[in-house]
Structures are given as structure tokens and as C-alpha cells.
Design a protein that fits this description.
612 residues, elongated, eight-stranded antiparallel beta sheet, alpha+beta
Length: 612
């Protein structure tokens, strides 16, 4: 166990974590150098195309260092966990670090310390991990390793001697990083769990942490485990037991990730491996549960809080006949994404669909893209919303509303509370003015500003989550030329005067187009929405009146004019009453058509709403 090293690679998004993992795999001989293995740990095509990591991915490497820097004939088992860098998936990073004793903190030599750099460093420090700071991408022409190293020293408190310099692209400095991992990161210690004695038992009961799970079509749910005490072997593999889930397990196979699943006879103390449970429902294996054996007396390992969806939107198939296929697709997606929440809903305009709960906007985009690519489904999604806590006048009952369609009437509402996030923005000094203007325009409440390093500002705000999910990221990148970064965490709820803005099409409410916003912004949002819909709803044989309303009050209106046939073209003179008669007949026909006809809302209308 003394030669085992468990560590994660953490960084801000696009700082080169996964590419660095590829070089480590090559340097240790886990994969052959020169093979086409770019972004090997990103198994999903969307991850590879976007250059982002969505799910944590573990791998086991064997490292034989040179005798000059280490003891002769020494060999280390390195269990590496590649983690996501986007704030939407920060819970994946937290889970991964539970299974580690150390972390490699990667910082881009051009961009420097950014929001998730600091957030992930704080996570590692909270877990009492040994952190190795690494400046990556030193081969780039615009790289400034000396400046970035000073940022790391000033912001995170490391010394110059602790910082390593690598290029994940060329492999420069990777050998030194491997040596530092073996030297600096401590070996795991056996965490026994005999509840009645403080003495260390000779053969402690099995105690393992389930830190992740995925679904395999043939092997069922694959549980990722780190053994804290005891071991999984041939003698106890048929009597495994999940402590919190109260579920007995008899895995089909056990083994390690190399990075493919490799079968083994057992997993020993301190090691990271997997169990192919054979279960068909991923919800049976709770992430954060403690794995032990039947009838063992243990203290369970502290688990995780289940991630709560904070962004909601409705999704409907473009073709109503695809609804059963959408149901099947969501069931399959949920097998590998336990954080995805959905329930059936219905809209008079769009038919049957699902109300979806996501961790953030990027999570929603990934799910929509997977539905399109993997299942060839075209879906329409409504504008994103957040969960509001509403206190009703009757009995002071509190309800949670996540969709405008379920919004109660204004007269029955006593109090409305909206979710709030603590927002941390990192920006180069020259863009601070624009970033502050954006945050304040999004109802951000200024908390603090400081300059952790030369030329870089750190801004802290309290901001409603509803403002963050509506076009905030795109505007931030535009204002800062892509250099500003953001990190946030949920801090509770605050009282807000919010109203529901209804959209009426020829007098009929279109619930899928309605939205909730602060009362002070409702009129402007309603007018902008009506003007946008006027541009995207196509002209037809009937006139379409588009109205925005709050309660019974119309606050904005636009009209899509109908096509008009010249019914008098066939007349060549004669009495004027003939012309009037034809026009009157056309008018009556249009009126009847308007009563019987329905307004078609194209999918582009819902996409355009997201840009408001």
C-alpha cells in the first residue's frame, strides 16, 4: 500500500487536463506512444468535439521511476481520476476528490488562474489533499509561465519551488511531474471502522466508498469504488453489501480501469477499482454509499449530498409521434446520468413532453445534443426557469414552482422567493468596468472586489440564479473577449416581487412561451418577447395578434398581418356595390377562418426566446 498514489487532475475548463492525462498514460506505458489516442479519457463524442470533460474518468498506471531519483527497483501504482472543469459539473470534482490523497492543479500558461482554478483548489484543500501546482501549455507562443507562476504564488499561496512546468502537447516536463507525484503525494492509509474498539484489527472488515457509477449494456451498473479498509477478493465477493441502500451484491466481475475495464482477482486497501454489479437500474447503486460485507459491523463513510437540479425547462418532440421515442431516450440517458430529472407534462400548443431538471445550462445543452445525435430526435425546449418558493395566503402553505405553467394566480400569493448564488468573477483589469456593468444589469449585488495578482481582478456578487441562466455567459465572454471566467454556488433564497408574463396568440394563452420575471422588468421583457415572436411566427391566411399580459392587463401587442388575395381583380368596371360585396364576403371568410384556424408556432420561436 505504501507505493499506491491516488490523485485527481483538476483545473478550469480548457486548461489541458485531459491532454495531460494522455501524456501521463504514454509516459507510464499504459498506452503506446504515437497511437491516435487524443483525449482518450473522454469517451463521449460530444466531449471530444467540444474539448470538455463531462464525467470523471479513472485510470490505473504502473510507474517505474529512474533509480537516480527513487529507490532502486521501486514501482508505483498511480490511480488517476480525470475530472470536469465546467462549473455545472463541479459536483463530479468533489466526488472524485473523496477517492484521492492528492491533486494535480493545472493552470494554463496563457490564461492564468481563473474562477474554477480557485474553486477546485478550495475543494482539494477542504479534503486535506496534497496539491501539486502545474503550469501547462508552456510551448505556446503566447505563454507567460513566469507571470502565471507569480499568480499561483500570490493567489494560492504556493512557493516557487513547488510549481512544475509542463507541455501536455509535446510531453515536456511530464517525467518530472510523475516523479513529483510519487514523491509528494502520500500513500493511502487504512481507515478501519470497528465501532467498538480503537485498536487496529488484524483483518478489518471491508469498507469502501462508491464514488461514481455508469451503466454498461451487458454488465449492468458499474460501481467505481475506493477501498478504505479490508479488500474485495474471491472469499467475500459473493457477500457484498451496500450499507445505506441495504442491497446485497454479487458482482459479475471486479477489476481496474487501465483505462479499459480489466478483470482482476481482487481490489486491495487503498486501491481504486470497479464492480460490475449486473443491476439494470443505476438508481439502485447510490453514489456516496459504503460498500461492506453482509453482517459486518462498521461505521459508514460520510457520503455526498445528491446534486439538486437548479435549471428547469420543458422539452417536446417536434413530431408528436416521436413522444414514445423521447420517453425511451430519456430512460436510457438517465442510466448514465443520475443527476438528470424529468417528469411528464403537457402543453396545448406543443402536445406531450417532459419537464426536465438540469444542473446548469451546459448540462441542458449536452442532454439536448445527445437526444439529437444518439437518438435522432428533434426537440423543442421552452425558456429555462428556476425553482421558486411561493407562500400561499391560504394556510401559509409553501410550494415549489419550477415552471411558469404552474404559476398560481397573483391574488393567492403571499410571498415569492427566488434562488440566489454567490458569484465569483475573474477578469483582466481592463475589462472590469464592462463586467461590473453586466453584473449590476443582471440584478447583481456587489459584495467585494480585490486584485489577487497583478492585472487580474476578482469580483464577488450575490445574484439571482434566474439572471445567471439567461444569456449571462455569452455576454460575459463578449465583453471580456473570452478572458473572464465565472464560478458560482447556491447560497439560499431571497424575497422577490415576481410576476408571470403570459403570451396570448389570438386570445389563446400559449403556456410554453410564458415566462416569470421581476415585476420591474416585466413590461420591457414582455415587449421584447412580443417583438421577437412577430419576427419568427410566419404569415398565414389569418391575422395573428400576439399579446403579452400580466394577469388580465395587456402590456404589449404586435400583429402578424394575414396574406390578402385581391378578390376584385376580375372586375372590369360596373357599379361600386359589386366591389363592396366581394370585399365583404372576403372579410366574413377571414373571420370564420380565424375562429376555426390555429396559430403555428415554429421551433425557432423557442430558440429565439433564449436569446432575450
Amino acid at each position: 500500500m505504501k507505493n499506491i498514489r491516488n490523485f485527481g487532475i483538476i483545473a478550469h475548463i480548457d486548461h489541458g487536463k485531459t491532454t495531460l492525462t494522455d501524456r501521463l498514460l504514454e509516459e507510464t506505458g499504459t498506452i503506446k506512444a504515437g497511437e491516435n489516442v487524443a483525449r482518450l479519457m473522454d469517451s463521449n463524442p460530444i466531449e471530444q468535439e467540444r474539448g470538455i470533460t463531462i464525467k470523471l474518468a479513472p485510470v490505473r498506471m504502473l510507474y517505474k521511476p529512474s533509480a537516480v531519483s527513487h529507490k532502486p527497483n521501486s514501482e508505483y501504482i498511480l490511480n488517476l481520476i480525470d475530472t470536469p472543469g465546467h462549473v455545472d459539473f463541479s459536483y463530479e470534482v468533489s466526488r472524485a476528490l473523496y477517492a484521492c490523497e492528492g491533486a494535480v492543479l493545472v493552470v494554463d500558461a496563457v490564461k492564468g488562474v481563473q474562477a474554477q482554478t480557485l474553486a477546485n483548489y478550495e475543494l482539494a484543500r477542504d479534503h486535506n489533499l496534497t496539491v501539486i501546482p502545474v503550469v501547462n501549455k508552456i510551448d505556446l507562443s503566447g505563454a507567460e509561465p513566469a507571470r502565471v507562476a507569480k499568480e499561483i504564488v500570490d493567489t494560492l499561496g504556493f512557493s516557487d519551488s513547488e510549481i512544475l512546468y509542463v507541455s501536455a502537447k509535446t510531453g515536456e516536463g511530464v517525467k518530472d511531474l510523475l516523479s513529483a507525484i510519487a514523491k509528494r503525494i502520500p500513500a493511502p492509509t487504512e481507515q478501519t471502522a470497528n465501532t467498538e474498539s480503537t485498536e487496529k484489527p488484524a483483518n478489518p472488515p471491508l469498507r469502501a466508498l462508491v464514488f461514481n457509477s455508469i451503466y454498461h449494456p451487458h454488465k449492468g451498473v458499474i460501481a467505481f469504488v475506493k477501498i478504505m479498509a479490508g479488500e474485495v477478493n474471491k472469499s467475500n465477493r459473493h457477500s457484498l453489501y451496500l450499507y445505506a441502500g441495504k442491497e446485497e451484491l454479487d458482482p459479475l466481475e471486479i477489476g481496474f480501469f487501465t483505462p479499459k475495464m480489466t478483470v482482476s482477482d481482487g481490489i486491495k486497501t487503498g486501491e481504486v477499482g470497479y464492480l460490475a454489479t449486473g443491476h439494470k437500474d443505476i438508481r439502485d447503486i447510490t453514489i456516496g454509499d459504503t460498500l461492506t460485507t453482509v453482517n459486518a459491523t462498521i461505521t459508514p463513510i460520510d457520503g455526498y449530498q445528491r446534486p439538486q437540479p437548479m435549471v428547469f425547462m420543458d422539452m417536446y418532440p417536434v413530431d408528436a409521434a416521436d413522444y414514445p421515442d423521447l420517453t425511451d431516450a430519456l430512460e436510457k440517458l438517465a442510466l448514465n446520468d443520475a443527476s438528470l430529472a424529468y417528469q411528464a407534462c403537457h402543453s396545448p400548443a406543443l402536445g406531450s413532453g417532459y419537464r426536465m431538471g438540469f444542473l446548469g445550462i451546459l448540462h441542458a445543452e449536452i442532454v439536448a445534443e445527445r437526444l439529437s445525435r444518439e437518438f435522432e430526435l428533434s426537440v423543442v425546449n421552452t425558456s429555462p426557469s428556476v425553482p421558486y418558493h411561493i407562500t400561499l395566503r391560504k394556510n401559509h402553505q409553501e410550494v415549489e414552482i419550477s415552471s411558469p405553467a404552474d404559476w398560481p394566480k397573483p391574488e393567492v400569493i403571499e410571498k415569492i422567493e427566488e434562488p440566489v448564488v454567490a458569484l465569483t468573477l475573474y477578469s483582466p483589469e481592463e475589462y472590469v468596468g464592462g463586467v461590473m456593468e453586466l453584473a449590476q444589469g443582471k440584478r447583481g449585488e456587489f459584495v467585494n472586489m480585490e486584485y489577487p495578482s497583478e492585472g487580474k481582478a476578482k469580483l464577488e456578487y450575490l445574484m439571482p440564479l434566474s439572471e445567471l441562466i439567461t444569456n449571462f455567459y455569452d455576454r460575459l465572454k463578449s465583453i471580456s473577449s473570452g478572458y473572464a471566467s465565472v464560478q458560482y454556488e447556491h447560497v439560499g433564497y431571497q424575497v422577490v416581487r415576481a410576476v408571470k408574463v403570459d403570451v396570448l396568440l389570438n386570445g389563446d394563452p400559449a403556456e410554453a412561451l410564458s415566462l416569470v420575471c421581476p415585476e420591474a422588468h416585466a413590461e420591457n421583457r414582455g415587449r421584447a418577447l412580443v417583438d421577437k415572436l412577430k419576427d419568427v411566427i410566419p404569415r398565414s391566411q389569418i391575422e395573428v395578434a400576439i399579446q403579452a399580459a400580466i394577469g388580465g392587463k395587456i402590456i404589449a401587442r404586435a400583429t402578424v398581418r394575414a396574406y390578402r388575395k385581391d378578390v376584385t381583380a376580375k372586375l372590369y368596371g360596373g357599379d361600386a356595390t359589386r366591389r363592396k360585396k366581394l370585399l365583404e364576403k372576403q372579410k366574413k371568410g377571414k373571420k370564420k377562418m380565424k375562429q376555426l384556424g390555429s396559430v403555428s408556432v415554429p421551433p425557432e420561436a423557442f430558440t429565439e426566446i433564449l436569446k432575450l
